[in-house]
Amino acid sequence: MTDQNYETSDVLVVGSGIAGLAAALGAVREGSDVTVATKATRPEGASSWWAQGGIAVSRDHPEQFKQDIIAASDDTADPDAVDVLVENANDAVEDVLLDTLEVKFDENGGDLDFTREAAHSEDRILHVDAATGKHIHVPFLNYLDAHDGVEILDDTAALELIRHEGRVHGAMLESDGEVTPHYAGSVVLATGGIGELYPRTTNPDMATGDGIAMAALAGADVEDMEYVQFHPTVAIPGEDGDDDDVFLVSEAVRGEGALLRNGDGERFMKEYHADAELAPRDVVARAVKAEREGTGEVLLDVSPLSFAAEFPGLARRCTDHGIDYEDGIPVAPAEHFLCGGVAVDDRGRTTLDRLYAVGECSRTGVHGANRLASTSLLEGLVWGLRAGEDAAGKGVEPIEAPDLLERDPDLPARFAGDKMHRLRRVMDEQLGVERDPDELGKAMATVRRLKGEVDAYVRTRTSRSLYELRHASVTALLVARHASENTESVGTHNLVEKAPAEPSAD
Question: What's the domain count of the chain?
Fold first, then answer.
């Protein structure tokens, strides 16, 4: 293809979650014209829309908030990055969510109703029922969509970055089968997480690690990819636990008093951690996994609280999925959040000139090896604003775009689906809640072969599904590689050697 037809904008944001929208807002406030390109065709396509628990703020105790973040990270979070988050938390939430978007957070007696979640030492989380994400995301989208300086391109995928000699000049965007270069003074990646790499996830369907893979292929540094967080309480409807029907049960439910019980009806979390149900997520996820394997199931007992009154949305969802929550909600761990990603500084700047990354696809250092509940929306908001402001005001310079070929026949209809199924099986079995050090090298070899197979097709074919598969395989290889290189069991990277098989009776 040629670059005779192309588009330009001062700032190109790839992704439409809270981090991408905050970046767009930060840039447009600086006078830049902004294009937001998103694969989503509706709000539900962005991870932020699915966020349940809420958004944490510092309130009057920033130092305590900082200590909670670091403790939850297993003492691996970057203190300087945590300072950036904590010191900007109150102002960012007040400026954007309260004053600009006028989000109607839940109140108690006319005042904001702050709640508590696991590993928080005080009530500091703003929420709207158990559906905070969509109550922030929808008005944010609407606000920017009505802004003269912002253009939102939905159902549009970024396939590859346009770069030259360490500088990023834009991205190749695909929409309705057409691929067009889009040049920009700066590019902000806000593509979300990697949930599609696992069979069971709380992420939307399109979370294939696009931004991480594009940045890595362009030469940007990527860090901490082994730290994949699994949420411990994901509802499993039906006896077969169909992976397509799972849904998140907010940490706030345990914060309000819900208890975890195993298949024998026993409350077990006190045996695993002093904070019991409110222990850090990695601890609870491992405990739930162990109890499911040992007793057959784990139920979230919501009888200690008025579940339907306090969490009406979740109660309706349980009923819609055939779960009688009064008998307990069957739960299991599921992939939830990537703590690593594209390495960035305190303004979201990557190691490539004019390329930024914000939100879940970035590695700010805030989360270390394990993320504290209700800090993801806050991180996206704070770093998004800062990155957008910094990305503004840089000149657009169109250069020769990559030639993405389309000369061979279309792939079989099931090609991408079959390869993704194979990838998910490896990630689930060898890079899940627990990892066997002896298996990590095998996982890396398997994923490397899969990536090689996909690369062979990408050289002569261009389609969204094929590039998503490429991005997923690149990202999976990074997770496997970083996991194999880290010999320390810490946070979400939990190394457990399998017991040797017992000799046969023969």
Answer: 3
pLDDT at 204: 84
CA distance 470 to 455: 7
- Give the angle 206-428-197 at the CA atoms, nearest 5°: 15
- Return the CATH number at 469: 1.20.58.100
Considering the domain architecture, whether residues 90 and 191 belong to the same structural domain is answered as yes
* Cα–Cα distance, 194 to 447 (Å, whole number): 15
Packing angle, helices 132-145 and 376-391, rounded to 10: 20
Q: Which band of pLDDT confidence, cut at 50, 70 and 90, is reported for residue 506?
A: very low
Instruction: Dump pLDDT digits (tens) for 389-406.
Output: 999 999 999 999 988 877
**What is the span of the domain harbouring residue 436?**
415-485
Burial pattern 291-325, b for ≥16 Cβ within 10 A else e, equals bbeeeebbbbbbeebebeebbeebbebbeebebeb
Q: How many CB atoms lie within 10 A of CB 398?
A: 16
Nearest to 335 by CA among 412, 281, 271: 281
pLDDT per position as a tens digit, 345-362: 999 999 999 999 999 999
Nearest alpha-carbon partner for 168 in 208, 207, 217: 217
* CA separation for the pair 401, 72 (Å, rounded): 44
Q: Which residue matches tokens 């939430």?
A: 93
Helix (H, G, I), strand (E, B) or coil at 384: helix
Does any domain span residue 321? yes
Strand partners, 380: none
User: Is the whole-model pTM more than 0.90?
Assistant: yes
Query: In terms of DSSP H, where are the helices of 93-218?
Result: 132-145, 210-218
Angle between helix 415-430 and helix 437-458 axes, rounded to 10 deg: 160
Which is it for strands 178-189 and 222-223: parallel, antiparallel or unpaired? Answer: unpaired
Indicate which residue of 281, 363, 371, 470 is catalytic: 281
- Could you tell me if 286 and 175 lie in one domain? no
Q: How far is CA 418 from CA 199, 241, 422, 450, in A?
A: 13, 21, 6, 11
Residue 285 φ then ψ, to 5°: -60, -45
CA atoms of 462 and 410, how far apart (whole Å) = 9
Establish whether 470 is a catalytic residue: no
